[in-house]
Design brief:
The protein is mainly alpha-helical. It has helices spanning 14-26, 29-38, 44-56, 59-163.
Length: 164
């Protein structure tokens, strides 16, 4: 309901009224003046009826308002506790994620180290293979030279045999 519709003071819910009064009291002077300018004009008879109604509220209604306020405060406290616990859980989760991240970094460094070792071994094997290949080439050349010498020796032996 809007404030303009609240012409009958007995129809105002005490909890709503308490909430409105609390909100108004929390406003600064400029905001209060602006709010007062927006309120409908209330004639003197309505104002008197309102104050009469407020003074006639029985003790149970005030207790109900106080109980509702206390429940709201307890709910707010529970929400704060829940949020704090959630914050702690988030911090714990962040710590776990950070630990996981550090473990991943360590594993990555180990993998890079192992990869570097494998690359070094591969290079060593390639160098060894190259040296073996070069040695095989030299051995092949030496073998060819021995064949050539053997052939010359054979030819020289044949000539010598032909001479005798």
């Amino acid at each position: 309901r809007g404030l303009a519709e609240m012409t009958d003071p007995s129809s105002i819910d005490p909890k709503v009224l308490a909430d409105v009064l609390e909100h108004i009291s929390s406003l600064d002077e400029g905001a209060k003046a602006k709010l007062m300018g927006q309120l409908p004009k209330v004639d003197e008879s309505q104002e008197k009826a309102f104050f009469k109604h407020m003074t006639n509220l029985d003790r149970n209604e005030f207790q109900a308002v106080e109980k509702a306020q206390k429940e709201a405060e307890e709910t707010i406290a529970q929400i704060k506790t829940t949020l704090e616990a959630g914050g702690e859980q988030a911090a714990n989760l962040t710590q776990v994620n950070q630990q996981n991240y550090l473990e991943v970094l360590r594993a990555q460094k180990e993998a890079e180290k192992a990869m570097a070792e494998l690359n070094a071994q591969l290079e060593a094997h390639e160098k060894l293979e190259k040296r073996i290949s070069e040695s095989m080439g030299v051995a092949s050349e030496v073998q060819d030279q021995f064949r050539a010498l053997d052939q010359r020796f054979s030819e020289g032996t044949k000539r010598l045999a032909d001479l005798f």
